[in-house]
Amino acid sequence: MNWLTQLPAHLARSPLVLVSVAGVRGSAPREAGASMLVGADFVVDTIGGGHLEWEAMAEARAMLLTGHRRPELRRYALAASLGQCCGGIVWLTYETLLPEDADAWQGRATQHASGIALLRQLDGDAAASRWSAGTASGALKLPATESARDWSLTQPLTPPAFCLNVYGAGHVGTALVNLLAPLNLRLRWIDPRADLLAAAPAGVECQPCDAADEAVTSAPTGSSHLVLTHDHALDLALTEAILRRGDFAHFGLIGSQSKRTRFRQQLAARGFTPAQIERMQCPIGVPGIRDKTPQAIAIGVAAQVLQWREALITPTRTGLDARMRSN
After folding, report:
1. d(CA 99, CA 45)
2. Where does the record place the XdhC- CoxI domain (predicted)?
């Protein structure tokens, strides 16, 4: 939801067009529900790139230039008209957003960031989308004829099911947070040094915290944890707190095999069982990467985080695939 996070600040300066994938039939670059913001000279997020996205950007900017206000629904045959090898059909909606509504959009972004599920209802004969709190499946009602206005889109904006707590704002932690911030996950960044958290990307929840127990206690149940601070003693204190709490999905600790061995010995001496200690993954990151620069380490760890996320959300994935309905 990078577009929703950035929307209020951009909208306060100038009108925007919100472009959303309303429905998909066959193969397409993005799923229904994917959205992007189009301004006069910038774009936030993507609906899949390629010719489809260029057409959508041109359509949106034409609306901005002409002052067009009415929501629009467009159908694109990817192979026939756009030459994209996906070969499916995509329906896009276009909604012009005005600066006077920036505060309302800030409220929606704040609600979503706090874990509230939102529903967007956009009708062809309406002036703008309607919003409410709640959950539902995505749905697109197609118009009776090509020029009819009796279409409607229901788009759920569900808070991310995957929450990651990153402890440490050093070189690797900063590189990792910047990589992960645009993705669909709840990202919490914790470090005692508040000044290092000040440059956090939009949408990242920052928590300056001196006490390891306090930092871990505040994490949501069932979330994942990555410990990569500047201090081995703090790493160990955080590891103890995470393992004692126990209600986490994944836990990774930065370090070498020798650090893993040393920590295992220290944890065993403090009463942790072998089963508890085995839940600690150390080293972290996908295998096969020898580059030790912070950016390379962060890329390897980010890939592992995506694997964690996929394993967590796949069994319960409901998706945003819109149900197609015609009159």
Report:
1. 20
2. 12-76
